[in-house]
Amino acid sequence: MKQKRSVLLKIYAALIFIFLYAPILVLVVFSFNSSNSTAQMSGLSLKWYSELAHDSATLQAFKNTMILAVLSAVISGVLGTVSAVGIDNMKHKWLKNATRGITNIPMMNPDIVTGISMMLLFVFAGRMLGKTGVLGFSTMLIAHITFCLPYVILSVLPKLRQIDPNLSEAAQDLGCTPLQSFFKVVLPAILPGVITGIMMAFTLSLDDFVISYFVSGPAAQTLPIRIFSMTKKRVTPDMYALSTIMFFAILVLMLLINYAQVRGEKKTAAKKA
């Protein structure tokens, strides 16, 4: 009975992985297709990777997307970590719970509501300052930081609750300033949560379309907006090539981060032993 159950669980897990990764596998395969067909392989070729290298509009959109994702991830990582520390140090429990609840609202809010509201806010602020055409890269950056921030806070807060609150005070008793005790004691302990939050922010910013669509303006275009504009006619196969490159780049990055975290945990365990 147990053996049958184990086999069924393995089959179930295999089906889940096939369901999740079969579309990506098809994407990778057709990125090497020598024709522009999405239903029939006509031979292997690097044609679409070559086409991608000469597609200046797509490359510019990709550049904008990566810069936006990196900046929003780093800034929201810093602000989110500071905010999480501030929330964790609140004395009144009701105030702490209320702040955490308010912080979680952007995660529950539909993207279209967030996008429209932020667009109206930016346009209203621009008119108040007597400026037109305010929507652009800067407004996208502000919007991305806004919706990424709660995810960083949510990743850092559990790590703060796991550490001994007396460690920081002990470091200060030994001569550290509050800032030094944070960087030498608190930050190393919560670093896995900070890295997780930054990675989530990077992925969310990289993938976002709805909010970016409303706050981007005509001058700034991200890759999701670029692909959406192509769907009105036809998505060219060089998008398959770009998506394949991005998938493997993110995969390698995740493997390196997981390796670094496992190595850090082993070092910590060895020191405790």
Describe the structure.
With 273 residues, this protein is mainly alpha-helical. It has 11 helices and no strands. The protein has a single domain (56-272), classed as MetI-like (MetI-like fold), CATH 1.10.3720. It has helices at 2-30, 47-53, 56-88, 93-108, 111-128, 137-162, 166-173, 178-207, 210-215, 223-230, 238-272. Helix 1 packs across helix 11 (238-272), helix 3 packs parallel to helix 6 and helix 3 (56-88) runs antiparallel to helix 8 (178-207).
Output the keywords:
11 helices, MetI-like fold, mainly alpha
- N-to-C CA distance: 41 Å
Helix content: over 70%
CATH-defined architecture: Orthogonal Bundle
- The proportion of residues in beta strands is under 5%
Strands, count: 0
Draw up the topology in text.
Elements: H1 2-30, H2 47-53, H3 56-88, H4 93-108, H5 111-128, H6 137-162, H7 166-173, H8 178-207, H9 210-215, H10 223-230, H11 238-272
Helix pairs in contact: 1-11, 2-11, 3-6, 3-8, 3-10, 4-6, 6-8, 7-8
Question: In a few lines, what is going on in this structure?
Answer:
The protein has 273 residues and is mainly α.
